[in-house]
Structures are given as C-alpha cells and as structure tokens.
Write a structure and sequence with these properties.
The chain is mainly alpha-helical. The chain has six helices and two strands.
Length: 176
Amino acid sequence: MQLIHRFFEAINRILPAKPVYAHCDIPCGIYDPHLAQMAAHTVIRMNTLIGELQKEHGKDHKDHNHNHMQEHVHKMARYTLVKEEHAELCKKEIRILWGDYFKPEHADKHPELHELVWNVMKQASKARQEINMQAAEDLLETVNKIAEIFWETKGVKTSRVKAPYPTGREIVVPKL
C-alpha cells in the first residue's frame, strides 16, 4: 500500500493536477428558476383557495353539519400544508441558484441580487406563517425579478406573460 502511495505522490510532483472550478457539486449545468416560480404561484393559489373556503364556511355557519365541518377542516389543513411546502420549496430553489449558480461577477453586475435573494427568504417565511395574499404576491414578484436576472446571465432575453394557471399572475419565460 505504501508503495502505491509513494508512486502517486511522485506522479503528482511531476505532473501536478490542475485545479478544477465548478459551480455545483456534479457539475450538472442545469439550473432554472422555473420551480421557484411555480412554487410562488402555488402559494398564491393556496391563499385564494383558503380565502374561498373561509367565505363559504362563513355563509351558513349554523347550518353546517358535522361532516361538512370535517370536510372544511380537512381542506383547510391540506391547503395550508401545500402553501407552506411550496413556500419552503421556493426558498430551496432560490438557495440553489444563489449557492450553486450565481457567481461573484453576476452579483457585481446585479448588486440588487443579494437583497432579492434575502427578500425571497423573508417573504416565503411570511407566506408560510400567514394567510396573506400580499405576501404571496410579493414573493412571486421577487422570484420573477431573480428569474429575469438569471436568464440575463445566460444571455437569454425574457418576457413576462400571464401564466396559464388559475393565479392569473405573471411568469418570466425565456424567449428562445
């Protein structure tokens, strides 16, 4: 074993390895803000569904039977869980872009990037903690700004279009 170790040390002295630079562990080279955008849209949608459920429940509260109350509680729990999971997914996806994709030169060119990433973390936390449509919309707007910067760093033009989802909000898409 020591002989093999010495052999590789000698080779390394003669032909030292060159440093390799990669922006992720694999490196896969596949990054996209789309999942963060979808997660933010889902947070908006869950806020809408929760609001509709609250209105429905408030109409004839005294006429609701036990089964209806159980259904209401079950839907509220599911909507809340999905809202919280997707707010966290949004944070995760932005953390991946921040930690693995964006480089110092991107932050130099877009100094607002630091604050945008920080805002997503705070906005997603607020969207998890509250039934708050404004917090959800703020989250989507910040994620969309990050998406625009992301695509700009790749030299890809973007446009904001009305998403084909029930949210009716915008999504940033690359123009290919």
